[in-house]
Amino acid sequence: MIPSRGSAVARRMVRDRSGVSGFALLALLFLLAFAGPLFTRWSWADTDFTAFRDPPSAAHWLGTTPSGRDVYALTVRGLQKSLLIGLTVATVSTGLAAVVGAFAGYLGGRTDRILMALVDLFLVLPAFLVIAVLSQSARGHGTLLLVVLLAGFLWMVTARVVRGMTRSLRGREYVLAARFMGVSAPRIVFRHLLPNLASLLIIDATLNVSAAIIAESALSYFGFGVQPPDSSLGTVIAAGSGAATTAPWLFVPAASLLVCVVLAVNLAGDGLRDALDAS
Amino acid sequence: MNALEVGDLRVRFGEVPAVRGVGFAVAPGEVLGLVGESGSGKSVTGLAVMGLLPARATVTGSVRLRGAELLGGTDRELSRVRGRDLAMIFQDPQSALTPVHRIGDQIAEAVRAHGGTTRSRAWRRALDLLDLVGVPDAARAARAYPHQFSGGMRQRVMIAMAVAHDPAVIIADEPTTALDVTVQAQVLEVLKTARQATGAAILMITHDLGVVAGLADRVLVMYAGRVVESGTAEEVFYRPRMPYTIGLLAATPLLDGGPPVPIPGGPPPSGALPPGCPFEPRCRYASAPCRTTEPSLTERAACHNPQRPQPRPAEGPGVRRTRSADVILQVTGLRRAYGAVQAVDGVDFEVRAGETLALVGESGCGKTTTLMEILALAAPQAGRIVVLGRDVSALPRQARQELRRDLQIVFQDPAAALDPRMRIADLLAEPLRAHGVAEPEVERRVCELLGLVGLDPDFAGRFPRGLSGGQRQRIGIARALALRPRLIVLDEPVSALDVSVQAGIMDLLATLQLNLGVAYLIVAHDLAVVRHLADRVAVMYLGRIAEIGSVEAVYGTPAHPYTRALLSAIPVPDPRLERGRSRVLLPGDPPGPARAPAGCRFRARCPLHTELGAADRERCAAEEPRLRPAGAGAGADQSVACHYSEGLIR
Amino acid sequence: MARFVLRRAVGSVVLVVVAVSLAYLLAATALHPRANFEGRSPRPPERVIDARLTELNLNDRTPLPDRYAVWVTGLLRGDLGRDFDGDPVAGELGRRIWVSLRLLLIGTVLGGVLGVALGACSAVRQYRLSDRLITLASFVVLAVPVFVLAVLLQMGAQKVNDATGTRIFQWAGQDGLSHLVLPTVTIVLAQVAVYSRYQRSMMLDVLSADFVRTARAKGLRRGTALRRHALRTAVIPMTTYFAYNLGLLLLGAVFIEKIFGWHGMGEWLIDSIGRGDVNAVAAFDLFAAGLVLVAGLLADLAQAALDPRVRVSR
User: What is the mean pLDDT of chain B?
Assistant: First the structure.
């Protein structure tokens, strides 16, 4: 039996040490995010009125905040939130970019001009401003709005790249062959064009995971993202960074988790790209 | 002393051997031809001599330039030799020049690489070198960038850089493969001039036996990383011993003589060579020792059972079918412009049921554009395209989709034409599914198609990557047959394939036509191939048809001076013939279609035009010749667009 | 060429107009300048608030189209409106642009040059120790969000200050070279990490190109061939990344300025959003959109200057 493409990629992937360690680290982080809350009796919403700004101890593994909340519980909750936001935003924005870019590139003409004008407009609109302003006015609408907003401003550059690559693929003989055989445009886009851009899309999605997590943290850092009392890595870091030198337990765990997540995603993406590229 | 001596050269990429013990010597002024098909290790040998293989390659053996060992030298030592004593000309002039530097600077850089000159003197030397290789208006050309040059001109620039320091050895790796035949003939002349000017030994690496026959003093034939036959040009071409060489010569399509004979199978992948002779699985004369021990190169051939060449089977008595009256495709006055560029400028022809029409011509003549216009099944910019009696310009959407069933295509490069991510079964099923064929029927038809093109049904589960070039092209043909079309359009169907495999595909196409009655419209640049594939041929020049007619007539008594020049430019794998004959050398490049002149568009390069009287010449300049029946014999199927072609037919 | 630049410029202006209008409308709908008065004690009478807001064209009781019309008319006269304190926005914008650009330009140029150099080095030494170290370092820097990087640098600088008993590094107060060091280092680090990754992959693509082989066949040493032929060709696509990145950088600068107390555009934006200062927010957007488009135009021109193929085909 001829090995399938998927298993060949998987084999190369396994041989790539940094890629594997990226995936392993990511799995551990997920485990921590979703199983972590089970190991402590403190919930992220609780307040311990006996411990304000305590350093790490047996009762509070990572200490408490000035308002008496358990840093471990808050951080793990933040990790959960950040991971979810990262994954959904990446999926949505990469998917959008792929579809818009591929159709613009393959169909050309008026469709292309309209879609690209849209891309340009989104590029010029200052994302930070829109998100900041909208999230100010929409406090309480939860993370869904945040996901939509973040995804809405991450897809444009990729859409352009996908369009460019589609235009070069459009002249490829296997695409011409399909067209001359009478295969329809959507079918060509989804059966021939996008699968052949898979490596680009995968690497883009992984980059978007980290971009979304960082963007969410940054917004939360300034109070524009996830709203208290809920927490994300960004809010924890923001709350702790002022006292970073005097009470490092408030800042260091969340910051290092954030760095770990982004690093893991990048390593995994890079390994995946190398594995896909070789074929 | 020999200019270059190579001993027991071995190259491995990781665990995969590419060259497995190659040795040869070249004397000053001698031309050694290194012949082989793709994957035979000939180009790797050339790069190994230059020391330019990527770092992951392991090279052992010895490479001596005028007695001095090069192998194992440091980059500093080797760069003192490269370009000064040892120069190389690469295959693809498209990518071999840096796109962002001016031509003159790139040549001057070669001059200055070995020190001792000022910038301005190097520039002047660059101009002299451009003159030497026949680039017109050197002062202006030197200031141009590579993308402003044609392929032929770029290859001249490569030669100019190679001879800048009068090297002892020039390695030419497929120097003319990417070029049109008339340009190839010019570049080969330049190469001969360069050899005379420098007295260099030339190592000529090529797959084209005709090029070697015209140029080489001695020839080495490589197969699977080893030399399998060596000798003087006359020995190798007239008295080959190794069955592979014999097969290769028999598989080469000729302008005259019988049809090419394929070598069965394909070359073994270099990662998995058989234990014995690597050619054994394809060899008709293999015996027991061939399967166990690899023969070593004795005086002439590396073979346990040296053979003598068989005479080529004569052309069949000509089961020339009478032309059907059923017109499948009719093209009238077709024009297509891209901006100011008139790519196709008034083309008429028709294809009838069960016959093959070939459009031939050099790059830029509009032959591929013509194909694409037909395949689009949409209204052309000007002219009419009628497929199966239906004018495509007024076709409703549904009818166009229906018409696609009857019109299918086979592309040049089978690797590019098959989506690498799909299984063979899905590739063959795609046209069926697009036209709503039911799933059980699809499955049945896929098996049937594989059988039709001579492949096992178990190919269905494989991916294109795992197939050889010939097998992939068979899949491409099977896919085109899936909907039982009446006309298949083939864009250079065999030019991406090795010679030994080409003939098999040509056989297959002929058999299919005979059994299925399908008509072919072929685009090709190789006139020798076309002669064996087509019933009729149309020679295109600058967007128009210069001559059209039956293969017998056009090849037998070419009426247009361009047709004659094309035919004469094709190198023949016969050293005596090749060296003895005088070529009609066309000056200049085929001009871009943007500058089509008034009157006859060929006259600037026309050898006949120069012999005409002043009054006659004026007619060429003023009046564009139309296609008219050629003079040879009433009722012959041949038309020509030339005012004075009678002067040629004697 | 001139026609091409003109067409680009016209298209860009249209885009800026649409984008800035959208930003204004969005800000005017979503922000609540009135809220500023609610916290004041004694709370001024409603009538006074309305009058003050109307005077600043910030009154949410005036219909949005009217406010937009006033703003556009002002804009056409070159008047960007007034901020919440009644000062002209244009003046504040003009002052802050230079404060920000000082930071951004140094950071971008240094970051770009160092990034390209490191990326090229990394590609040439692919899979060797130096490549792996550069790759690892850039990964780590990329994984650290700017605001964390900034805080970390601050912590480090505090240590240095404490240890030496000096004030080599400062992050409060205005101007001064010592104040410029930390934010610039933050920007440069982040830029180097990004550019070196791009340049590495661009360079890998041309490393085994035929024309590099030709250059070596002429007798050029490997290093010379790579510098003159491979690197020269591989920097061309960087111009595009450069353009996209400048827009992102402005965003990054928002955080850096806020953290290091650098009184530039970024700090202004965040404060303005907080105060519901619609005119200032719109002015910032005008600047940001303009910067992105100018960067795009510059990138195209740079590409044409570097690549003769582009020059002719247009």
Answer: 89
